Amino acid sequence: MAIYLTKESKVLVQGMTGGEGMKHTRRMLAAGTNVVGGVNPRKAGQSVDFDDRAVPVFGSVADGMRATGADATVVFVPPAFAKAAVTEAADAGIALAVVITEGIPVHDSVAFTAHARTRGTRVVGPNCPGLITPGQSNAGIIPPDITKPGRIGLVSKSGTLTYQLMYELRDIGFSTCVGIGGDPVVGTTHIDCLAAFQDDPDTELVVLIGEIGGDAEERAAAYVRDHVTKPVVGYIAGFTAPEGKTMGHAGAIVSGSSGTAAAKKEALEAVGVRVGGTPTETARLVLDHLGAGV
């Protein structure tokens, strides 16, 4: 099984006809994703050839859903148009919207994530690599060939750390890997994924990757304490980051003692989460717990 994305998912790509959209649509198709259409109002009725497959272009998400039964969309549009794209998808009733775009103004993210919730649409992102259920479907930009299906669930703020842990634990494999994004406002949180992995019978252990800034990891720790019975292994990026300086992601800023890596590590360890000092040590903790050796 998996969370949010399976081999049955039918995926639209908003911005498929752009450079990034075309490149990653080709990679998603090669990974087995059932991409059923693109969305571009100016190119409705056309199709795009990807190797041996022609993918139709629709004028709107609603049109694409009516024609194909799509239940997910991946958003590759520029930041200025992201709010409209996600709002359109939510109004059409799409179940899942994966927003890859970075640089979206925070007030836009606040607006479209709140609107999507009222429509029952799950937003993953923005500023994220997407999510992958290895061997089934890949929605976003996660490399599909660095791991295999398995029994670990992964939720991460960081794209590159998602890839590293996927690779280091490739011999065991993953049920689903979700890159939630590192912006101050995201549609899907650590807690959302922890709840889903807790309910997934094929996920045996969860890896949680966080980073400095905000209190998402502390809130996740409280959720683990109260609701999660499966083992959780964590990693927090940013122990050497200077205070008061944004590092990489827009949400990775530390003020005083709030949002530090040390505080997050302490909160997680207090509820029984084993936290690695490096990504490799984190992978070793997972292997040790699962009895897979090193």
Automatic annotation (TrEMBL):
Q: What protein name applies here?
A: Succinate--CoA ligase [ADP-forming] subunit alpha
Report the source organism.
Streptomyces zinciresistens K42
The EC number(s) this enzyme carries: 6.2.1.5
PANTHER family noted in UniProt: SUCCINATE--COA LIGASE [ADP_GDP-FORMING] SUBUNIT ALPHA, MITOCHONDRIAL, SUCCINYL-COA LIGASE SUBUNIT ALPHA
Q: Which GO terms describe its molecular function?
A: nucleotide binding; succinate-CoA ligase (ADP-forming) activity; succinate-CoA ligase (GDP-forming) activity
Reactions catalysed, as given in the entry: succinate + ATP + CoA = succinyl-CoA + ADP + phosphate; GTP + succinate + CoA = succinyl-CoA + GDP + phosphate
Catalytic class of the enzyme: ligase
Alphabetically ordered keywords of this record = Ligase, Nucleotide-binding, Tricarboxylic acid cycle
Q: What positions does the entry give for substrate binding?
A: Y163
- List, from the UniProt record, the residues annotated as the active site of this protein: H249
Q: What is its quaternary makeup?
A: Heterotetramer of two alpha and two beta subunits.
**In what residue span(s) does the CoA-binding domain sit?**
4-104
Q: Which family does it belong to?
A: Belongs to the succinate/malate CoA ligase alpha subunit family.
**What does the record give as the function of this protein?**
Succinyl-CoA synthetase functions in the citric acid cycle (TCA), coupling the hydrolysis of succinyl-CoA to the synthesis of either ATP or GTP and thus represents the only step of substrate-level phosphorylation in the TCA. The alpha subunit of the enzyme binds the substrates coenzyme A and phosphate, while succinate binding and nucleotide specificity is provided by the beta subunit.
Question: What's in the GO CC field?
Answer: cytosol; succinate-CoA ligase complex (ADP-forming)
Q: Its pathway?
A: Carbohydrate metabolism; tricarboxylic acid cycle; succinate from succinyl-CoA (ligase route): step 1/1
Sites binding CoA sit at: T17, G18, G19, E20, K43, I100, T101, E102
Biological process (GO) annotations held by this record are: tricarboxylic acid cycle
